[in-house]
Design brief:
Length: 383
């Protein structure tokens, strides 16, 4: 099968969608399919060493420097017909998604899309003069979904949201975005403790993700300030970068935690995967996750999770043996209590670690997810 995947984000930009697209391509190619990516050019200085990736001119988004706005005009458009694509799979409704829709109609190709992101929560990044209302955003999502031949939702929770927006239930199929489980069996080569002077007897709390307001990292820092009052031999490692970094660093100084909180900035994916394995607890308080791949990755690494149970994260941690503890509401004391309980109870920590590894391997491997996506493609092509 010849598969065209269109996305407005891709590596070296680091986020869950970039990771998903890369894993889709790798696994689909393992199964013998030809996969072609259509993505924005990150920069003229960045050279890709990956076959079958078509780049389109792009400009930086003024209010989020890592984000690119693709200009879907390129000589490569004329090459697409020669690829004889069987199906198009878009990852968002924006520039590349619009191009995907245009090409699907022009070339009479079936078009599937995955709803990765709760765009309603990201309107704040747009200036007021062009910021859509909540209803306008929901209508945009609904209209995009209705133009697709099938919508893939990462979780049941997100499917329910789309149905509320007016997308027919039978137009949506739930397929979690899987992760590479075997990669966590590799030996660690990046010594996190050595690089950041973390002593052997110090416990590590970890956050991985973009430093944006919807991730609630300021909340996690406040939680950590209470944790460290009880467990002084604890450090909080924050991996990622974003618009909130300077504000968060100032907050850490104001709380006199600069010796306890470590900002590593963005890191290569290989280092991030190794960081999970070296942490004691992964903490997460985002309320916008369609699934929460970082939560899955942490559990796959055997690191227990304490996280806010909203949106996609709820669908993960709502399972009894998922390998994490779900906090129902954004309450500092509840987070502190559960973090301290996991830190102090070694049997509980061990059980959560074992549960997480088993749970992800059985339910959320990339192999399982991609096989289900391929079945969706076949169903759409035969409809």
């Amino acid at each position: 099968m010849n598969i065209g995947i269109f996305s407005d984000v891709y590596f070296p930009q680091k986020n869950g969608v970039s990771t998903a697209v890369k894993l889709y391509k790798q696994e689909m190619e393992k199964l013998g399919h030809n996969v072609y990516l259509f993505v924005p050019r990150y920069s003229h200085n960045y050279k890709r060493n990956e076959k079958n990736v078509f780049e389109f001119p792009a400009i930086k988004f003024l209010f989020e420097k890592e984000q690119r706005i693709a200009i879907p005009i390129s000589g490569d458009i004329f090459k697409i017909k020669d690829l004889e694509l069987d199906i198009i799979h878009s990852q968002d409704p924006f520039s590349m998604g619009i191009l995907a829709e245009f090409l699907a109609k022009l070339l009479k190709i079936k078009h599937v899309g995955t709803h990765h992101t709760m765009y309603e929560y990201y309107r704040k990044y747009l200036p007021l003069i062009i910021r859509p209302t909540l209803k306008q955003t929901q209508k945009m999502i609904r209209n995009w979904c209705l133009k697709l031949d099938k919508v893939i939702s990462p979780t049941e929770n997100i499917k329910e949201v789309l149905v509320d927006y007016g997308v027919p239930e039978d137009h949506i199929v739930v397929i979690p975005t899987g992760i590479e489980t075997e990669i966590f069996n590799k030996e660690i080569t990046w010594n996190l403790r050595e690089e950041y002077n973390i002593m052997p007897d110090e416990r590590i709390l970890l956050f991985v993700g973009r430093l944006g307001p919807e991730k609630n990292i300021d909340f996690l820092i406040n939680v950590f300030s209470k944790v460290v009052n009880n467990e002084k031999n604890t450090k909080f490692v924050i991996i990622g970068d974003g618009v909130e970094r300077e504000k968060l660093e100032e907050m850490v100084v104001n709380l006199s935690l600069q010796e306890k909180v470590i900002f590593t900035g963005g890191q290569p994916r290989e280092k991030v995967l190794e960081a999970y394995k070296q942490a004691d607890i992964f903490v997460f308080a985002s309320y916008t996750e369609t699934q929460g791949l970082v939560v899955l990755e942490s559990m796959a690494a055997g690191t227990p999770v304490v996280a806010l149970g909203k949106m996609g994260v709820y669908d993960l941690l709502n399972h009894e043996n998922a390998g994490g503890i779900m906090i129902k509401e954004l309450n500092e004391d509840d987070f502190v209590h559960e973090i301290l309980r996991v830190l102090k109870d070694h049997e509980l920590h061990k059980q959560l670690s074992e549960n997480g590894i088993k749970f992800v391997k059985e339910n959320y491997s990339i192999e399982v997810s991609v096989k289900r996506i391929i079945e969706v493609y076949k169903d759409v092509l035969n409809s």
